[in-house]
Amino acid sequence: MDSLGRTVVFAILFLGESSCRVFLNPAMMENHPMGNEIAAWSMEFKIPFLHPKVGDHEHSKKTDEMIADAGYPAETHTVVTDDGYILRIHRIPHTAGGKYNRSRPAVFLMHGLLSSSADWVVTGPGKALAFLLSDRGYDVWMGNYRGNTYSKQH
Q1: Are 78 and 132 contacting, i.e. CB atoms less than 8 angstroms apart?
Q2: SS3 call for 104
Q3: Of 123, 115, 112, which Cα lies nearest the Cα of 150?
Q4: Residue 24 and residue 44: Cα distance in Å, rounded?
Q5: Quick check: pTM over 0.70?
């Protein structure tokens, strides 16, 4: 048995209740110029203690829940575009324990590719940009691009 085979056997035994699956990966298949198919075998391991359930994680909460849990007021607004797409935007109108004040300057935060408004609050008060701006007197608005978790309807 070669060293790779011994490593795989060891890994499968070591993982115990974890799961392992070996499969032919069609994404790796090629047609050889001589007419033969070349296929790649893939292995997939699931190790419970390395891959916890995402729903169990503190940061898997919705944006407005993270804001409210931090003690700040949270609002969710719906915006309908001219072509009928429904976007959700989040707002922190004032600081924790503060009062509504129309004289606060507004700031709009927009996330990058493959993200959401949660990026601006996920690290919590004293660290996240949305909370820092709110604490410094801004009315904070956080947008969401089409297709992310908050803007899939149309």
Answers
A1: no
A2: coil
A3: 115
A4: 11
A5: no
